[in-house]
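Two records follow; treat each independently.
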Amino acid sequence: MTPFKIEHLKFTSDSISTWAPGDHRNTNWPVVYVLDDVTASRPTMRGGRLNDVYVGESRNAVARMRQHLVAPDKRHLSTVRVIVDESFNKSVCLDLESYLIRMLAGDGSYRVLNRNDGITESDYFDRDRYQASFLEVFDQLRRDGVFTRSIPEIENSDLFKLSPFKALTLDQAVAVEGILEGLFEDLGSGATSTTVVQGEPGTGKTVVAIYMLKLLVDIANSVPTEDLDSDSLFSEFFGGEYKKRLSGIRIGLVVPQQSLRNSIKKVFKKTPGLKPDMVMTAFEAGESDEHFDLLIVDESHRLNQRANQPSGVQNKKFQVITEKLFGTDDTTKTQLDWIRAKSTHQILLLDAAQSVRPADLPPEVLSQLVERARAANRNYPLATQMRVRAGADYVGYVRRILSPDVGADSVPMRPETFEGYDLRMFDSVADMHAEIRRLDAEVGLSRLLAGFAWAWTTKTDKSAYDIELPGVQLRWNGTQTDWVASATSLEEVGSIHTVQGYDLNYAGVIIGPDLSYDAGAGRLVVDRSQYFDKKGKENNAVLGKVYTDEDLLRFITNIYAVLLTRGIRGTFIYVCDPALRVHLQQFMPHN
């Protein structure tokens, strides 16, 4: 494969005119180019004002540059870098363009000016060889000062993982297209709608939520004269009647988990068209004086029913919002009812098996949501595993292992292996922690996680330890927000409320004494006294609900299933209960 070259020129009419006749490929060959405003007086910055960057591909680079010169949002750019390779074709250029957009968005030093009109994972001849050359393109652009971070640094960042500039899997693309068609139909007819997107851990529910919001904003803000690549997946939705139907549309993204919500806000702050105040809690959506045309709710299974909230202020807010929306303090109303009352259209992303607290929406409400969405042809399942590199059935395997009656005749199990995925059980937390440290030094993002089976002593005594096991003394996560990237996280243990919704490269999971195995009965059991999340086992006095040990078993096994599906490259497990350890060794390799 002939090496590529990167040609540099000033983003001016004179410079482009001078460059045009130098090579026939400047006007008649597929190329990829990068436009930015990085100059000697304004170098690429990690903080302060962000640089602007735009990545494009074209068969006629000169004509495309001249179009950009008169575009209001790009005329301030100063530098052009054109990536030329005599072996490039349209498919390669679309793939390289997508790659560079994703990496620049994850770098953190830029506002990426591209629209979100449909990047997909499309295969083509010799793609592996071409993608190997993309790494060389990246390295050259980094030497030129375009990138400020290495590839591992970028790929391990929340800015990359939560970026709206993602290449969609086929089932994600099908879901987005179907949702768009249904939404535009409803906007035209004045009908209301509720759409449900279902997916197990790692199928990209949050990706779809962020992607969808960015796409709708880009359609609403599209300029009629703007050139649009007809090959892009969602090009048909830009301009015309679709743009009109989104005129003045008010959209919000509701994210129940604090840490994930704050991470998404950071992404929105660096993305044109998106604003951090678009991302909110269910309380903020309910309190808003404005009505939303569309509310997208990520992790909808974590919306609350009426229950004792973490603070008295929130208890009061729950009552006030319900009275405001429904005229009376109807305790049967949930945060889902708030979302419906505050919006004309809703897109709800959920996985019922990730409910981890009694205050979460009950299973019957989630089941009813899904049934109604199916009946209305507004239910979209996501199946492709994007996170765990262990094949599609790893998540299902973990959930089967954690089924209460696993090993009994009613739930027969057999050991499975996952080629290329590092799944191991450890007899020592110290050894597991040492392996996590080693891998973190090698690839980053390797952390210890645990079920809530130890009291959080360090909340009041910073000198104490929370988790004491043979050979180790450990503390819970020192921060509730962005813990994974915090300076002390490698020496701490993350809880479910810190990591749900996040990716790790390797996860070392401690299954605490809250979960054990009754060999005689052949089933998993819980020890309520060893489960220290007060809100995780609290009865619901408002609704008169008492949570049994069976209910608690569902929440705790859901928690461990979530923790065991955080690792992209591998998952390590230490089990406190001896009987459970022996039982699980049947299904997992031993270190």
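The next record belongs to a different protein.
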Amino acid sequence: MHITQDIRNIVFTGHTGAGKTSLIEALLFQAGETTQAGEIEKGNTVTDCDPLEQLHQHSLYVSVATVHHAGCHINLIDTPGYADFQGQVLTALSAADTVVVVINAAAGIEPMSRKIMEWVSHQHLPCMVVINRIDAAPDKLEQRLQEITDVFGRECLPLELPINHAAQVVEVYDHESGTADFSSVTVAHTALIEQVVEAHEAAMEHYLEEGTVPAAELHEAFEQALRENHLVPVCFASAKTGVGIAELLDIFAKLAPNPLEAPPHPFIRHKGEKTVAAWAIPDPDKPLLAHVFHVEFDPFVGKLALLRVHQGSLKLGSQVLVGAEGKPVKIGHLYRLQGKERIPVQQAVAGDICAIAKISEIEPDTILHERHEDDGIEMSGMTLPTPLVGFALRAKKRGDEQKLSDVLHKLVAEDPCLRIEYDTTANETVLRGLGDLHLRIALERMDKQYHVEVDAAPPRIPYRETITKSVQAQYRHKKQSGGAGQFGEVQLDVEPLERGAGFEFVNRIVGGAISGSLIPAVEKGVRQVLASGAISGHPLMDIRVTLVDGKMHSVDSKEIAFVVAGRKAFMQAVAEASPIILEPLVDLEVTVPAAAMGDISGDLATRRAQIHDAQADETGNMIIQAKVPLAELEDYASRLNSLTAGEGSWAIQFSHYEPTTEKTQQALMAQYKATED
């Protein structure tokens, strides 16, 4: 059984195609955990174990594997590289003590790697950069190292250098001299030692007095430099040839921080209306605090929750409390994960990563604890990107509606950047995500894993109708069919209100022309038209309807007669009041590299956007603020991604309604008329 000091939690991140999964395969093979290194093309890797990952040959979900090396228990967390799945990367960071950013030697720094380095800096997580696939671009390695330093800062220093034309690597922390493909071991060693001692006062004094400090005496200073992001070690490796893999295992065991050395992950505790910071102590004897960072649904064991034990120990058979409500549950299944393989364990100590199964109360971000005084504790939240791209979904088979709802809730539980919205007006279920690929993968999963077939279409734009002038309308409903008849007559004044005012119904009946008990029936008929629309099938808004007069019959006047009279009179009034169709406008904020400013502005102009501000932020990116019709943003996520090579981001918020274009109005009216006919 390992102890907290022996644990290393390493999350592998980087742009898609950088080779994260292949690196983990090489590490597993090197450590003797597998008999052969799996290949992505063959679909036999440990961490890309989902059928969709094997089909697409890319990581799509968080996955965990473990290696044992030099007495250390090293948890390796694989994450997706597509920007559409960045929510999974962000949640995985909450379980990590070290972030490895993998960069493709042939491609260089790519957009996802830039984003991750920003997150790492913001969260103050120890970080390493691994330049992978050095066999594919041995002549570009010096250039890549310089690019990393230029883009990510002078804190990025080589911990290794390639030698023999990238056929080997040499570690420069312990080695003080030697040759390399570029620079020299001596120069790299000196730079590394000087960077480390800068972060530690005692080590700096020793260095100034002696002129050098043996690397063996600098472990505490090295860990402090990592914690403070004063040092970002850069390593070189090739998952394909195995170069640098053994050295990388040694670096993880010797230099990557254990949970006692890593920065503590922040929690918050609610005290009344206030929140106060709280910190978990990675001591296995303290009261339990464990955080669920990922949930998935296994076809054999059901709900499977991946969690990091931040404090205390989680034991098989123990009773723990779940979330803010503190509901007690028993841990009946406790596993260590090796990809899709579940290895039963008796306990997980502070700092370790494990999985529990078949506890329905557990959701993403849940805290497991032992004391009711911890019921209100939460992991300090990180900001996740807002899902903006959507599909309106409808089950293809009648009777599958409930099954569709159940599956959608499972997908949302697994991915923090999927969201379900129910548009009652349009009678639509909308699934929103971060991009087209994000949603396509969700639809594939619904089909292949859960066997639910759906029709997917862009969600209906929430247009509205209104009127532009005041009118008066009168309608008499009279029906005689041999028995009891129906009679109701109403006179309405209908007038437009200012934008955003909503709807008002005013009763000005005097002298008992219509019984007070029948007035609600008139309003009911009016509201039926409000909900269904009059000219395009979209709800009406910003209208005042005043009931000014009417007639009733002592025998034939019933509620249904005045519902019909109210509806018909209101429809007649709308038709005469110069109705128009309104479209929703949103406030759009776009953040893009300065070089893409021209292309973005031009694209927004074609979308009828009104740009009202554009300025540079502290990183040099441009922030554009504009108002734009929501209907013009249907394909904006993919277009922005194309124009900025994946480096742009955007957010929207509803602003107000304005009249749509004449062309759109005519099209919507024609479409509605066709369905009515």
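Discussion point: The longest strand covers residues 580-592. How would you locate this feature using only the token line?
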